[in-house]
């Protein structure tokens, strides 16, 4: 499956040169598909060993390529495919697991997960480089694996001053009877908490790119507003799932790493450096400055 954003679609409809360049970009990404898929499968196997799950059964595998301007990210065309994949998987399962997978909450969480992975793949910032593969349990006994890779071109005569990025996304849904038996009380709040951290890290990446002059303040503002809206939606879901009580109960467990945004010193250092840059940029950077202060002083919630 290959799709273009509406704005890029309009450009390619008007310009044969643009159309050919996009086709070539997508071809380059497709040529890398075999090696990318091999790495994807290796990471799935590594996760299975780490999770001590040896009865994985693949329910569905698919891939998609989306092409857009670098500041954009949209699931307008991919989201229905994701929803259909969850629905198809649910039909092969029964009872409460099927209900969890087909719930609006599950579909929203999984769609947000795809956004976070594909956007991280497009980022120029090292803060996002480790987010291009994700393994998540999205229901008892059901695991979602996602991976993304991106390549870009820039041609000011054809596309204007901004780069165009093609992103390939692999997704695989697997189930495990052993895990189903072990996680009867699974709650999607764990996935949403991980999503919140992923999007916060992407925000750090935006701040890093802005501080380094890799994007303009206008592009940063547009991207950050979209992320803020997504984060608010995730926070609302966490509130409804009694987030504070949930994470108090796992404070001393393996999930404790979810409690803080600063899982490494790098994130904090990036924000501190960005803050120094924005303080000297004048009033036009006020929003970026305040946003960075908020992340430094309130790293998760």
From TrEMBL:
Keywords, ordered alphabetically:
Coiled coil
Residues forming coiled coils:
8-42
Protein name from the UniProt record:
Uncharacterized protein
Species classification:
Bacteria, Pseudomonadati, Bacteroidota, Flavobacteriia, Flavobacteriales
């Amino acid at each position: 499956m290959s799709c273009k954003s509406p704005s890029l679609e309009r450009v390619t409809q008007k310009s044969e040169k643009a159309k050919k360049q996009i086709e070539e970009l997508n071809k380059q990404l497709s040529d890398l598909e075999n090696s990318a898929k091999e790495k994807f499968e290796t990471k799935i196997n590594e996760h299975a060993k780490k999770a001590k799950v040896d009865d994985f059964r693949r329910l569905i595998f698919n891939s998609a390529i989306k092409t857009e301007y670098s500041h954009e990210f949209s699931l307008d065309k991919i989201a229905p495919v994701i929803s259909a994949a969850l629905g198809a998987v649910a039909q092969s399962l029964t009872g409460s697991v099927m209900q969890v997978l087909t719930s609006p909450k599950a579909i929203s969480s999984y769609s947000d997960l795809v956004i976070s992975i594909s956007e991280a793949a497009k980022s120029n910032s090292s803060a996002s480089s480790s987010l291009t593969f994700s393994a998540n349990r999205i229901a008892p006994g059901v695991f979602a694996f996602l991976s993304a890779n991106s390549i870009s071109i820039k041609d000011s005569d054809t596309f204007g001053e901004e780069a165009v990025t093609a992103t390939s996304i692999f997704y695989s849904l697997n189930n495990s009877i052993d895990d189903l038996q072990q996680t009867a009380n699974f709650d999607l709040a764990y996935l949403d908490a991980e999503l919140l951290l992923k999007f916060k890290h992407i925000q750090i990446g935006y701040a890093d790119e802005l501080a380094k002059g890799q994007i303009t303040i206008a592009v940063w503002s547009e991207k950050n507003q979209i992320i803020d809206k997504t984060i608010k939606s995730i926070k609302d879901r966490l509130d409804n799932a009694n987030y504070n009580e949930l994470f108090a109960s796992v404070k001393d467990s393996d999930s404790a790493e979810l409690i803080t945004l600063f899982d490494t010193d790098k994130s904090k250092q990036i924000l501190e450096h960005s803050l120094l840059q924005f303080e000297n940029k004048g009033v036009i950077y006020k929003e970026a400055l305040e946003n960075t202060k908020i992340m430094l002083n309130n790293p998760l919630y």
